[in-house]
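Archive entry. Fields below.
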Amino acid sequence: MQNSEAMALSAALLAVAGELTQRINDGVVARGFEGMRPAHGFAFARLAPNGATVTDLAAHLGVTKQAASQLVDEIVRKGYAERRPHPDDARARLVVLTGRGWACTRAAEEAAADAVRAWVDVLGEGEVRAMLGQLARIAPCGPIRPTW
Amino acid sequence: MQNSEAMALSAALLAVAGELTQRINDGVVARGFEGMRPAHGFAFARLAPNGATVTDLAAHLGVTKQAASQLVDEIVRKGYAERRPHPDDARARLVVLTGRGWACTRAAEEAAADAVRAWVDVLGEGEVRAMLGQLARIAPCGPIRPTW
DNA sequence: CGAAATGGTCAAGCAGGTTGACCATAGCTT
DNA sequence: AAGCTATGGTCAACCTGCTTGACCATTTCG
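PREDICTED_STRUCTURE:
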């Protein structure tokens, strides 16, 4: 495979990823969750199952724990999450989503589904599902790094 | 297609895009082009063919022209580009890549090819090429927005 | 028990972006 | 040709998100 093809693939992938991010965020905001940024969505993805500590979150986002702590301050102040004492470790604090945080997460899922539906209209459901399979096999396990 | 599938697809796509960005940038730096950030790569992609004005670049990157001008200052200072008078418009200045700028662009292509090769090892060339075709059909035409 | 490691926060600084103001040149309308 | 408006570009001030560095509380291990 030629360098130019690799570059074309990279450009297309990054363009699609950028637009997807934009669409999800726009969709979330349009559903009434103002002041949300894409980084919040990545945080929610980590918090959603069972909550997480600030340090966990920092590792997941690929930033310092101070930055993660600031981000938690923000989503707590806006009512999307709260800090609870950690059941097993008196040093740590477990950050969990509030009801509003869950609602926002569902809004993000809906927005993502809308964006994907647009792809299904162009490619058909089979190809989109195939793409999911392919991407899942090459997706890294490490931290989600929105670093660009 | 369910919301959860759409979310999984989105997460995989963003994870792959994030890692690709990281790998390309690391590869560029490893090839001797220090101090480069992913945003520079997006700028080079626009400058490469025939140069561009600061305003063009700003539209392409989705930032203000002041921000684009600062970025041009930086790549000029580092020797990757230069500002030349615009042939048709005395107000405008055409930003073009220098030899070093072209070398950096080629390094980025090589790094991208390395990253794609890793995918070919997992998926096979056919599926990677199929992915290119699919992505090309859903890629937006608007500005590349690394906004997240 | 005491030393080192870990979870978390506070404070200061930096980097990259934004808004606002401004100048020079183009282009259009008379 | 004259004048108004639009466009390309830069300078300056500010804002936001993240980093580094210092520090305290608690846990873990020798």
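CURATOR_NOTE: The domain at 3-138 of chain A is CATH 1.10.10.10 (Arc Repressor Mutant, subunit A).
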